[in-house]
Amino acid sequence: MRPKYHLKPWELAWQHKLRDWKDSRFGLKLIQRIPAKLLKKIPYEAIPFWIASVLVGVVSVGYEKAFEIVESTSIKIFNYNPYLIFAIAPVFMFLSWYLVQRYEKNAGGSGIPQLMAAVNIAGTRNGLLVDKLLNLKIIVIKVLSSLALLLGGGAIGREGPMLQISGSIFETVYRLIPEKWPKVSQKVMIITGGASGLAAAFNTPLGGIVYVVEELTKSHIGKFRTAVFGAVIISGLTAQLFLGSYLFLGFPKINKLPFLSLFWVAGFAFISGYLGSLFTKGISEISKLRTKVKKGGHRALFVLGISLLFATMVFFTGDFSMGTGKHLINEILFTNEELPWFTLPARMIGSLLSFSIGGAGGIFSTSLSSGAALGHLLVSTLNMGQENHNLMVLVCMIGFLTGVTRSPFTAAILVLEMTDRHSAIFYFLLAGMVANVAANLISTRSFYAQKETEIYKELGLRTKSKT
Questions:
Q1: What would the pLDDT profile of 69-86 be if each residue is shown by its tens digit?
Q2: pLDDT at 4 over 70
């Protein structure tokens, strides 16, 4: 049973009100009317997971709708008058950074490193620190900061933030479980939160499950498979209740390649994986540079400088480097239009600068769009023809995302579920494995793992093993 000091005043008040209601005349009558056999069969341990999963599905839909509105508004402002980017970028990017710095520093970045750290801390002697990484305040600041950054034209995604938001929802529900309720594992709650968040964000239930196995835990899946599977299904169904059954990227047409073309797949995967890892190295270097600026005023000037640099690049290259990049991926996969050669560097640099601001925002979607731009550029440069275009683009999307996350199977399954191209599953898995090898040439640790280490230091913990 969790100690009382782990609960905040409002959480204790909830516990007391719930107990009083249960002992009231109405509560006792209601309980007495429920057959004893039914009471014994109720899966009490699963109820918190069900409640949290429904909440995640609802929040995910609202967050996605807000992202779509804000992103389209930002692009419309730029297309109305490109010079306006020099106004909206500094103002809203600075606001994004300020919200995180002023109100909740752990709401910055993608949120995945915080979720990973919370998973490893939960259930240990430092378990009380989980509340610093996952809480209701983080949800509010995460949403506001990411939307502000997006309104400024920032090239960010919502999928990483959604994982931390989902973990915070599950952690909050865990804390509100009545004292006499059957024991529920805090670690399993957080892990399940991550899975349901990814599933709801991308509409990819298998991707959520694979991500849990590959990235969030090294435990045996049998320990929490029922909770994870159930939460993924419920959060996904809740999202589909509002959005309908949809594919994140539709049905891009792909053709089967001859056996020898596997070398092309491996080559494209290697290049994209290497470039993805190089991209995260750039983010890390700028992040280090930002942290070296100690004074608050100087940091603010640094953020404004980055935002003006971003605005200048967008002004000269167009809206390729703005937003989540989903519109760019759809244009590459479903039209035959040629794109300017600078689409790839603009997309990568735009994402790098946006993420380096220090506000909230993810790099899942932006990594996929950078990979798509890379695939399109390589196919066009090598004159491979339209029949191989889409498959190679998808391969590069998997490779780039793998280079960033070091989760090759998650990347492969995510793209598979986004496009429903099951005939290409072996190409996708090969691409993930080759890209992971290439990424290791830059660094043996993922970007998220490096940020997780920084979080341990900020919490006063030496290493993960010490937690």
A1: 999 999 999 999 999 999
A2: no
Enter the tokens of residue 54.
């429904």
Sign of CA dihedral 246, 248, 254, 257: negative
Question: What confidence tier does 447 reach under pLDDT thresholds 50, 70, 90?
Answer: confident
| Alpha helices in 335-388, H assignment, sequence order | 343-356, 364-381
Cβ-contact 123, 163 below 8 angstroms = no
- Tell me how far apart the alpha carbons of residues 245 and 374 are, in angstroms, rounded to a whole number: 29
- Mind spelling out the 3-state secondary structure of the chain? CCCHHHCCHHHHHHHHHHHHHHHCHHHHHHHHHCCHHHHHHCCHHHHHHHHHHHHHHHHHHHHHHHHHHHHHHHHHHHHHCHHHHHHHHHHHHHHHHHHHHHHCHHHCECCHHHHHHHHHHCCCCCHHHHHHHCCHHHHHHHHHHHHHHHHCCCCCECHHHHHHHHHHHHHHHHHCCCCCCCCCCHHHHHHHHHHHHHHHHHCCHHHHHHHHHHHHCCCCHHHCHHHHHHHHHHHHHHHHHHHCCCCCCCCCCCCCCCHHHHHHHHHHHHHHHHHHHHHHHHHHHHHHHHHHCCCHHHHHHHHHHHHHHHHHHHHHHCHHHCCCCHHHHHHHHHCCCCCCCCHHHHHHHHHHHHHHCCCECECHHHHHHHHHHHHHHHHHHCCCCHHHHHHHHHHHHHHHHHHHHCCHHHHHHHHHHHHCCHHHHHHHHHHHHHHHHHHCCCCCCCHHHHHHHHHHHHCCCCCHHHC
Which residues neighbour 79 within 8 Å (Cβ) at sequence distance 6 or greater?
A: 319
Q: Tell which residue, 409, 448, 447, has the closest CA to residue 426.
A: 409
Q: What are phi and psi of 385, to 5 degrees?
A: 90, 155
State which H helix or E strand residue 264 sits in: helix 262-292
pLDDT tens, residue by residue, 85-110 = 999 999 999 999 999 999 999 998 88
322: pLDDT strictly greater than 80: yes
